[in-house]
Amino acid sequence: MSSQARKNPVSINTLNRMKARGSKFAALTAYDALFAELISSAGVDVLLVGDSLGMVLQGHDSTLPVTLDDMVYHMRCVRRGNQGALIMADLPFMSYASESQSLESAAELMRAGAHMVKLEGGAWLGESTRLLAERGIPVCAHMGLTPQSINRIGGYRVQGRDPSQAHAMVEEATILQDSGASVILLECVPVELGQEITERLEVPVIGIGAGPHTDGQIMVMHDMLGVTPTGIRVPKFVKNFLPESTDGLRGAFEVYAEAVKSGAFPAPEHCFT
Prior knowledge:
The chain is of the alpha/beta class and about 270 residues long. Helices cover about 40% and strands about 15% of the residues. It has helices at about 10-20, 35-40, 55, 70-80, 100-110, 125-135, 150-155, 165-180, 190-200, 220-225, 250-260, and strands at about 25-30, 45-50, 85-90, 115-120, 140-145, 185, 205-210, 215-220. The protein is globular and about 45 Å long.
């Protein structure tokens, strides 16, 4: 899909309509203007300016060192290159520790060009989510494996395999939706849990390692190009799409978008049970 082929910019309403009719949408991380242009013009519907830049760009071993200033800088770059995709931006570690700080940090990212902000956590985010939504700031609530809590979780591991934990996650996702979250993102959860949450919620659900039943899929751009940094373990849910391209990087993004929208990705080997 060329940039001219996208008749209207992607919005939250676009994602809601896609969920209603059972159409899948594709999302990828982006951190600069060039890749934002390549990705968004290849048919990817959502760009995430992710704090994963701490690992893939800055050389850290986690997302924790990333600052709000870092996020604002990369948000401005992505905005300049974007060709009609919806842009989400991560609120980085400790930039939303209080409700007032959440408002201030989110406002910075929205001024820089974000269409939505993403926060990591569960039901405890309910009040901050409500405050942001009431003030016109759309929220994506990131649940499951939340990289900013990696030290508390004790490593990168699947969440929600225990029945009580799975039940709690379903309840918390509902609370966040009712608090005003426009999108839920699930990371590293069993297929069955990803399906249950997607079917229960009215808002779109994006998955990464959450099975094929979510409304959308997201990957870190570097992972889907096969350039995961040395020393970082490649997760099970990652697939390198570059070998399938006949048109370099742009072709890889097109292949990824088509695989998500057709339901070919993720395949069973990319999922947890």
